[in-house]
């Protein structure tokens, strides 16, 4: 074997070991050897490197074993460093900080940002916080930043177009890299949303997430990778035409799905009929109101038309629907499923997101962790972070 091969195998083993330590939260060297199939000497050498790099720590809090010895368990060294996820939405910028173990520990929401000034405002707001946390999360500090854009981002991290900010063909990465002195990724919010769903809640190697906010986006993970298409624009599903002579869309076509099935449209219709309604919480009080049920039924009919198309194109195992009204709102899901009546439609499950409006920022932070660890998958499904007080604020 030449050294090229040896280095490749070493890197591959390291990746597998980190993935298993993350997935299992805490485990011994011998368990690690057993589940990865690697021999104990290989595990030992690799773990020694990871301990040296402060990526992994040893703990001895496990159950007592024979003769009273406690096994030494390995965990990711959560507080040795941190990552940041930033979601630039139409009305606010949501920023979440997570430890190397993916635990959200700080959240900021910037409102009233000015178009054209977003990058500078972000830098001004976050830089002092980074200085503070760089001192606390040592010795590694900040490992990366993931920025979620509600618009089209190409394969080179360039923002091609965002309808809310009217950004076109700009690159904010370089400025952020210079300011934060770390790796920065920019991606579409649907991609970061589906990634957050996979990492925090629904670990599957193939997963679909449809975001229903002001527009509609589709994030696809296929064999643990984003499906991006030729230039990176795949998943612009909101511009699937569902009414041949429908309303005019900003994309230049008529009758696009998001003109009928985005939550912006549902909110508008509900507020026209119930002007004092507070969304999304006020919906609970309307559950028996006939006008509400008629508006909802019309909306869900359109939502089901698009979903039917998505299901027929992809035959997905699981689709998660994410939006501020549908999140956690399971009655909607059964109503939608009742409308998916095609005999050839096939999928296993449709569910409402539990991550809420934090999904994109969490996905951005998790992407930065994935890059730092050099892994293919991150699985924090067993860590129960979604009840975190940080995310409730
Ligand atoms: Zn369109």
Sequence of secondary-structure elements: HEHHEEEEEHEEEEHEHEEEHHHEHEHH
Q: What CATH architecture of the largest domain would you give?
A: 2-Layer Sandwich
Report the oligomer. Answer: single chain
Q: Assign the structural class, choosing from mainly alpha, mainly beta, alpha/beta, alpha+beta, or little secondary structure.
A: alpha/beta
Assign the CATH topology of the largest domain: Nucleotidyltransferase, domain 5
What gyration radius follows from the Cα positions, in whole Å? 23 Å
Counted up, domains total 3
Name the CATH class of the largest domain.
Answer: Alpha Beta
The pLDDT mean sits at 91
Q: Please state roughly what percent of the residues sit in beta strands, choosing from under 5%, 5-15%, 15-25%, 25-35%, 35-45% or over 45%.
A: 15-25%
The CATH superfamily name of the largest domain is ATPase, nucleotide binding domain
Record field, number of beta strands: 16
Bound molecules: zinc ion
Fraction of residues in H or I helices: 25-40%
Backbone shape:
globular
> How widely separated are the two ends?
55 Å
Largest sheet: 5 strands, mixed
Low-confidence stretches: none
Could you give the order of strands across the largest sheet?
A: 6-5-4-7-11
Number of helices: 12
